[in-house]
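Teaching note: in complex prediction, the entire set of molecules is handled at once rather than each chain in isolation. The prompt given to students was simply: 'Predict the structure of this complex.' The entities are:
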Amino acid sequence: MIAEIGLAALWLAAALAVLQLVGGVLALRGGIESELAGLTRPAAILQGGLVAVSFAMLLWVFAITDLSVKLVAMNSHTMKPLIFKLSGAWGNHEGSMLLWVTVMALAGALIAGVERRLPERTMQATLAAQGFVALGFYAFLLLSSNPFERLPQPAVEGLGLNPLLQDIGLALHPPTLYFGYVGLSVAFSFAVGALMTRQVTPDFARAMRPWILGAWVFLTLGITAGSYWAYYELGWGGYWFWDPVENASLMPWLAATALLHSASVLASRDALRVWTIMLGVVAFSMSMLGTFLVRSGILTSVHAFAVDPERGSFILFLLALYIGGALLLFALRAGSINEGERFSVASREGALVVNNVMLSAILAVVLLGTLYPLLTEAFDVRVSVGPPYFNPVGAVFAFPMLAVMAVGPLLRWRKDSWARISKEIALVAALLLAALILCTVLFGTALLPLLGLSFAFAVGVASFLPLKGRNLLRVPIATWGMVIAHFGIAVALFGMASEGAFSQEKLAALEEGGTTAVGPWGVQLESVDPIAGPNWTAMAGQLDVSYKGGEPTRIAPESRNFWAPAQQTTESVLVTRWNGQLYAVMGGENNDGRWQLRLWWKPFVTFIWYGGLLVALGGALALIGRVRVDLRRRSVRRKLAMRRNDEKALA
Amino acid sequence: MNWRLWLPFLIFFGFLGLAAYQLSQPKDEFIKSTMVGKELPYFTLPPASLDRPGVDSRYFHAGGPKLLNIWASWCLPCIAEAPQLERLKEEGVEIVGVAIRDKPSDVMRFLAEHGNPYTRIGRDDLSEVQLGIGSSGVPETFVIDGEGIITYQHIGDIRPEHVPVLLEELRKAEG
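The expected output is the structure of the full assembly:
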């Protein structure tokens, strides 16, 4: 019964999406007075509630492990802890699509409920676009990936969840990315709505901005968490592999970052209108493209799950419909949209344009590298594109962008002169040069880590320059957000450069009682003990590790064997100090009774993720700042309207 | 009309064509070993069961062509191919087994239940032999000629129709 309620709610929601689409289109054609147009907003709001019910029902069948539901039987197991039963609801193709639709419907309900700044025709067009996008996903779910499908005979026991996925970080990782993707879908709907009515105004940018910011915060968190998960769970010691799935999450982030900055220009200065619309379309395209690449299995990836060519065709069809349609609309309409205000090169806008061009270039580099194997495979040549391409080619654009990022926020809008901020530029240049020379003399590592360390230092200091000479208590929250996000970029860069420059690796075979060393750490293997968990058994190495001969710490990395399904994984152990991490992985037993150990000392590697968190925090602060200003403006507007009405009544 | 505004659409169209073409192509499910035609890498494995000796790569350097069967007691298709291995043994083929990530007790139970066509069984706990000869899954079967050269790779379980193919490959390896 529970599953049937969920399915019924989903069908009803799809019907409401049709109503939303029709109402929006009629309003656009016949004017906002038509009767159906009045239903657009209520349809969106009710739809949000229905889909939420549907998703709650899915959580319920997973919570009680209803094995007559096919999805539960395929992906869950009665022996699993409750939290992983619940996360199992979206740790698969069907459930994750339902989660996507849920977030999307809730977002649609929110804009339908609260957004009143834009001209009503533009809002109707936006909601119609939102309904159209949602409809495709409803069709996908209901016609080809029904999460509530029943089995003819209930299963006796579930088939379990991939043990690699039994991890709290991973339970949160996909939802985080989906919030990001869906935020971009809202930005996309706004862009399409504005294109339809040709009303690309600062108000449009202000309405779209919180959604971009929110999406961007979630994407940042998703990428940061995903990177950390790959780092400690896969046991390979790396934090980024330029795997297609990772790129699929990075590309929307790059596009969203560019969109965020161009939307600021549009909101503040009414410039970059067409470009902002273009980025709005591109950002959502990248989310869809990522989904397509991951789900279709068209590219081989270590992460790919639920690969199915039929699903691939469906997503490709949606991609062609939405993105092809939007780009067609863009080609037809954008010519009639005025470019907007002009500005000089030496201005805040100028710096932001450089930022946009560089981010777009990096996006193109990543996109090309990700799709290149697809292209060559059409000619029967198999290649895999990895760090030797992405790192240097990306860096060519990343470092100039970082240089502009260091000084850009100091420039004024519209027209400024380099001479006015020459002192600050000189300071940043001096810091950069000093750091570069110092690092070369002290460490003399490869070029990229060297540049990374120097830029991290210079940008880290420069990110606080916009606060110079201001009363810190009166600096707007959004400006704090920018400062912190830019500083976070420097921190993450420092972590990456340091990992590249100073990491040390050790492969050792130890008998019980044997010792080895990696970097400043001494390591002794005390014993190897068998242990058992709820659905696995493991060999745990008891290691005493001591930093520079200090007090030893006991750690126990494990090599685990799961039995439902049978799979071997490693549980690595990390010892975190303020200045880096010791990373220990337990291997198997050699023929001679010695145990294999893999050890890394990674100085300051944690700064990568601290940086990511800082960037997300900055984004969240900017979001809070913007929304607060918007709310204040709205209440002022309401009071003004009330006063005007009073005056009219008195007269 | 501004032609540049059409550029994104055209690029996207190109991508669509490429993706649609790739989706319509059948996916390669089998990964061919690049070791076919090359010499077996050196390895020495302890026995995986109590009643058969372990395996040393030098064993393949004498005594005519043999089959090297990569399998495991935890692998379901290995049960499906057991009758075919039995038939190959009856045809006088020598089959050497390598048990991947297995326990002797499980190996013994499997052999008692499904028959033991092997003359020797090595225990490969780290998949080192498997990786060394370019096998990406279980089960896989390799034809090794009398000089230790890998001449043929069969991916997946051996079905009845594959038996003559393998016999033919063994004959070729002899000549």
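Point out the following to students. The interface with chain B takes residues 278, 281-282, 285, 292, 296-298, 309, 312-313, 316, 319-320, 323-324, 327-328, 330-331, 334-335, 371, 374-375, 377-378, 566, 568, 588-589, 591 of chain A (CB under 8 Å). The longest strand of chain A covers residues 521-532.
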